[in-house]
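Preliminary data (for renewal application), S-adenosylmethionine complex.
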Amino acid sequence: MTADWLADTRTSYDTVAADYATIVRGIFGTDAYLRGVLRLFADLTAGGSDGGGPVLDAGCGPGHVTAHLAGLGVDAFGVDLSPGMIEVARRDHPGLRFEVGTMTALDLPAASLAGLLAWWSLVHVPDEALPSIMAEFRRVVRPGGVVLLGFHVGSGSRHKTEGYGGHPMDVHVYRRGIAELSGLLVSAGFTVETEIALQPLSERPGGIVIARS
Ligand SMILES: C[S@@+](CC[C@H](N)C(=O)[O-])C[C@H]1O[C@@H](n2cnc3c(N)ncnc32)[C@H](O)[C@@H]1O
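Predicted structure:
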């Protein structure tokens, strides 16, 4: 795995953006657990002494999570590596703010966010890039702010060469342990508050870690 992962991920999601948006549309209507996790995150980010503040959906894809959070009263905005995804997000959610950017170097001032969520957007990030991304999250989230990571649970990776309607892709998909992600957050200076195992006995288990800066 090389630094090309950024370019490969960008190109892959540009290719699938329109069909990806169609596939994920409405997901929160059918999954009470995901809705509940986002409700919890919304409550936590609104609960600061200064009454909330901007919340970044890092790797927002087509913006459906950003929009769901906005519907819960969160001042949410999205950043994604893929210009194609950002185009779809702006089209589908014209009242919200979306920017092209990378979580490896966010174009945001230090301590400017009340919260940051990475919702299955770290799944293509190689292991060696994770510590510096966690440090970047720590830089932009203000003291007392909340970080939520959602990810595939397990071990190892697979090379994904097509997806979302048969489009060509060139990404690696990583599965990780919940304790591994918590450990990375702790190493970056966060305090882990909650770990959640989603569908732990299924073929596609998920993990959520919520931590505070
Ligand atoms: C599996 S999709 C998840 C999208 C969305 N969060 C969701 O849950 O549907 C992964 C997303 O992460 C984005 N991504 C991957 N690496 C990124 C990076 N370094 N900076 C910003 N976005 C990134 C991809 O472009 C893609 O849109």
